[in-house]
């Protein structure tokens, strides 16, 4: 895969066969994979078709953009955001990248994010979608699960109905890279292609943690709004071409 643009910024699989042995596992609480051992990839691209093209990452809950809420949930971690650069909280170092070609789907986006982590010292990757207003409710549980089950290759969040959430999950970095390398053409590919070869542990999560914003109805139910006025449809041209950059400030260069 070519094309990493850096600056410091998976079709849910129903029926995922993952073990649910973390429920009731002794020693889970109070343990966690530290920030030095777990990098983060946030997917913030896509067309937002069911939101009339409105940028999900810029939608607001309690005065804070959804992307900023996700970044707040992983403060202290090495972070890559896949998608067009946007303002982020001041002083935070974020690596930005876009998949090649842009809008190639979540699997291609995740691969681009992992590629941007080349040289990282992390052993784990926490994958998150940008439209999870309450990601902070899930992150500690996922990191604790990784600490409690280090032999797993993927610890995938599951909602209260038992549905897998591959973009609310922790992956062991080396197995993740191998799975991506062996997944063939990633553009438009379903996330189950990534998960199939991995040893998966199911991580039950509370309902609020797994609720995302796919439609205006979702936004209304969650209390999510547009910042001021509904922005115009964003085109793929708003994503920068491949090439790496690092950014510390909250305002894009």
TrEMBL record:
- For whether the record's keyword set contains Transferase, the answer is yes
Keywords associated with the record: Transferase
Residue ranges, annotated region (Disordered): 1-28, 225-253
Highest taxon of source? Bacteria
* Pfam families, alphabetized: NTP_transf_3
Keyword flag Transferase: yes
Q: Do you know which Gene3D superfamilies this protein is assigned to?
A: Spore Coat Polysaccharide Biosynthesis Protein SpsA, Chain A
Domain annotation MobA-like NTP transferase: ranges: 40-196
Specify the species: Sanguibacter inulinus
Record field: compositional bias (Low complexity): 227-242
Q: What is this protein called?
A: NTP transferase domain-containing protein
């Amino acid at each position: 895969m070519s094309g990493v643009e850096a600056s410091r910024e998976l079709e849910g699989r129903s029926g995922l066969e993952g073990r649910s042995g973390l429920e009731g596992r002794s020693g889970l609480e109070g343990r966690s994979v530290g920030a030095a051992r777990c990098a983060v990839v946030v997917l913030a691209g896509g067309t937002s078709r069911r939101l009339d093209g409105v940028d999900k990452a810029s939608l607001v809950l309690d005065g804070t953009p959804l992307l900023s809420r996700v970044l707040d949930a992983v403060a202290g971690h090495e972070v890559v955001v896949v998608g067009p650069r946007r303002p982020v909280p001041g002083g935070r170092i974020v690596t930005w990248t876009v998949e090649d070609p842009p809008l190639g789907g979540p699997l291609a986006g995740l691969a681009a994010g992992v590629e941007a982590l080349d040289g990282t010292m992390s052993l784990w990757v926490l994958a998150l979608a940008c439209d999870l207003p309450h990601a902070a409710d899930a992150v500690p549980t996922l990191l604790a699960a990784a600490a409690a089950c280090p032999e797993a290759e993927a610890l995938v969040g599951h909602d209260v109905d038992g549905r897998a959430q591959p973009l609310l999950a922790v992956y062991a970095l080396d197995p993740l890279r191998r799975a991506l390398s062996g997944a063939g053409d990633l553009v438009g590919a379903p996330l189950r292609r990534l998960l199939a070869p991995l040893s998966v542990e199911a991580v039950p999560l509370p309902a609020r943690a797994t609720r995302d914003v796919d439609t205006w109805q979702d936004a209304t139910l969650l209390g999510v709004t547009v910042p001021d006025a509904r922005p115009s449809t964003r085109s793929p041209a708003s994503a920068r071409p491949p090439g790496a950059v690092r950014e510390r400030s909250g305002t894009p260069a």
